[in-house]
Amino acid sequence: MSLSKYAGVFPAFYACYDEAGNVSPDRVQAFTKYLIGKGVHGLYVGGSSGECIYQSVEDRKLTLENVMKAADGKAVIIAHVACNNTKDSQELAAHAESLGVDAIASIPPIYFRLPEHAIAQYWNDISAAAPNTDFVIYNIPQLAGVSLTIPLLREMKKNPRVIGVKNSSMPVQDIQMFRDEDVIVFNGPDEQFVSGLAAGAVGGIGGTYAAMPELFLKARALFLEGKMEEARQVQNDICRIIYKMCSTKGNMYAAIKEIIRIQGGPDIGSVRRPLAGLAEADHAVVKECADMIGAAIAKHC
Predict the structure, then answer these.
(1) 287 catalytic residue (yes or no)
(2) Would you call 209 a catalytic residue per the annotation?
(3) 99-125 residues labelled b (16+ CB within 10 A) or e (exposed)
(4) pTM beyond 0.90
(5) Which of 14, 17, 44, 166 is catalytic?
(6) What are the pLDDT digits (tens) for 170-196?
(7) Count of other CB atoms within 10 angstroms of residue 7
(8) Which one-letter DSSP state was computed for residue 108?
(9) What is the CA 172 to chain-centroid distance, rounded?
């Protein structure tokens, strides 16, 4: 089985809400078409950027259904299905498989610190609910509170559906170590996209890609052409933009959603509480971010 379809730039899909704060099918479809139109290789739906921990099972099903409807086979879709209990996670996994996603993904259970054998059981139970679908382990220790270890990865590799890791830990060497275990790895931290590719990542899944897909696509193209200095320059501009995005009082995803609207993209609402929406003073920063992105695209693309 070829895993080449997983190479590339995969924006982490944002939650799309109407003015009342409910998931909007129309806005989900509009945002899906917008991103595919930018030339990205696939979408990662229902993860951190999708505000998954603040959504119900039905919210997440509705989002994925409309992503799949709008994508219509034009992009590779990875659905993050983890909830903080096995039953709901299995329900989402089975639902995702019924829709024909390319892969499902899962963080480990959060809050209680579980032993590795319990984490492996959780992931294998989820995978069993989607027995014909590839499975991606999502390693994000800074939020999940537990790190993927090599022994745990080796245990999970006994499951033939496990194909890789979405690695959002900051040490780049984690990508190298996971790749040595003969699985594919997606770079997670956007600030180290080029470094992640150099360490062996097949591509990236990132929470800021949707605001500037052109830059990540260009950085990857330059990397593949061996133009490392040019790729590094694009990465430097990406980092400066991300740092500015993180300077708002409101949540970064609230800022990014407004940036996309300013850029002429679809209005996909704000964020769901308890995430903080934009403060009045944030709008100047958001405009500056949009200008920085435009300037970087003009410079590099």
Answers:
(1) no
(2) no
(3) eebbbbbbbbbeeeebeeeebbebbbe
(4) yes
(5) 166
(6) 989 999 999 999 999 999 999 999 999
(7) 17
(8) P
(9) 17
